Amino acid sequence: MKEKLQGMSNLQQRVIAAVIAIPFLLFCIIYSDWTFYVLFALISVLAQLEFYKLLGLDGNEPLTYYGTFCGFILVTVTFLIEKGIIPYEDYYVLSPLMALIFFIKLYKSEDEKPFKNIAYTFLGVIYVALPFALIIILAFLTPDFRFSWQRPLGCLFLLWASDTGAYFAGTKFGKTKLFERVSPKKSWEGSIGGFVAAMMVSFVLTQYFDDLQDWQWYVCGAIIVVAGTYGDLVESLFKRSIKIKDSASTIPGHGGFLDRFDGLLLSVPFIITFLKMF
């Protein structure tokens, strides 16, 4: 099966992955708040493991499993607090958990650059797990604090539209380099295509999703196009620094979970802030 997929074009692999993955994602997001949590907790764990694995390829030694455990606890505690199962004060449990990173590294005498690897361990939690915790918050960001799948799913639709529009527009019309030093294939034409596609999906969301006002969906679409592009560039810079193309080969045509959700990692903090303020 893997050999057959490798013999297909990148576009064919993307289509097959989408046909298989999207119904599963939709089911988990819409069915209940618990399936929603399990889905994004799992993606967060897999993406964080990928991040630490890539750091290891460059000779670094972050606390892969403990850092991922801290990220999982962050996402889990966030969900339980937003659902009202535990009080907000339970966020403090993260403080000693994160402090233990220093203690653990203190006993790893073979680590020649412990503080560098401590920093990378923290970075995995902040860069990967924190945005997924914010996605949990996004689902409960309603006037009565009830769970609603519309906002996170709408943002995913906008991200997919932006990525798809940029892919096809860049492939067909891409000439003007967007950020050649970091990502030689990205073009301004692709970004414009992604923006147009995101605005079209924003319009569709205004017709069927009522959690946000019409203008808010358009702003969210614009945020995802801009911050999502930067998120992609940031991950490209990271991969370029360790001389690899994809974070993994987990998802055919897409690479790994970091490759698939990199745009969301930097978009969600801006979206949460925008919706909280406006």
Keywords:
278 residues, mainly alpha, two-stranded antiparallel ribbon, 10 helices, 3% strand
List the helices and strands and how they pair.
Blueprint (H helix, E strand, L loop, with lengths): L1 H5 L3 H22 L1 H25 L6 H19 L11 H13 L7 H26 L10 H24 L3 E3 L3 E5 H21 L5 H28 L15 H21 L1
Antiparallel strand pairs: 1-2
Helix pairs in contact: 2-3, 3-4, 3-6, 4-5, 4-6, 5-6, 6-10, 7-8, 7-9, 8-9, 9-10
What does this 3D model show about the protein?
There is one protein chain. The protein has 278 residues and is mainly α. It has helices at residues 2-6, 10-31, 33-57, 64-82, 94-106, 114-139, 150-173, 188-208, 214-241, 257-277, and strands at residues 177-179, 183-187. A two-stranded antiparallel sheet has the order 1-2. The mean pLDDT is 89.
Radius of gyration: 19 Å
Q: What is the count of β-strands?
A: 2
Query: Ranges with pLDDT <50 over ≥5 residues?
Result: none
Q: In percent terms, what proportion of residues is strand?
A: under 5%
Give the strand order of the largest sheet, numbering strands 1, 2, ... along the chain. Answer: 1-2
Helix fraction by DSSP (H/I, runs of at least 4): over 70%
Report the major sheet: 2 strands, antiparallel
Q: Number of DSSP helices?
A: 10
The computed structural class is mainly alpha
Mean pLDDT, rounded to whole units? 89
Overall morphology = globular
Instruction: Write down the secondary-structure element order.
Output: HHHHHHHEEHHH
Distance between the termini: 49 Å
